[in-house]
Design goal:
alpha+beta; Alpha-Beta Plaits; two-stranded antiparallel ribbon; 4 strands
């Protein structure tokens, strides 16, 4: 799985980092993917983070 954050859409709320800290990290007030590709053991949390994003800035492929 690959996670992509649209930095133009991201509002920097940090929910994704709280849910999946192995995958997302806040950098300069925006979420950044730090695990490429997402490890199998982190896929469930990554999906939850994407679903929890209030502005739908996270895309999973």
């Amino acid at each position: 799985m690959k996670a992509i954050v649209d930095h133009d859409t991201c509002i920097g709320c940090g929910i994704c980092e709280n849910i999946a800290p192995a995958v997302f990290k806040m950098v300069d007030g925006k979420s950044t993917v730090i695990q490429k590709p997402v490890a199998a053991e982190n896929e469930k949390a990554t999906r939850e983070a994407a679903d929890s994003c209030p502005v739908s800035a996270i895309t999973l492929t």
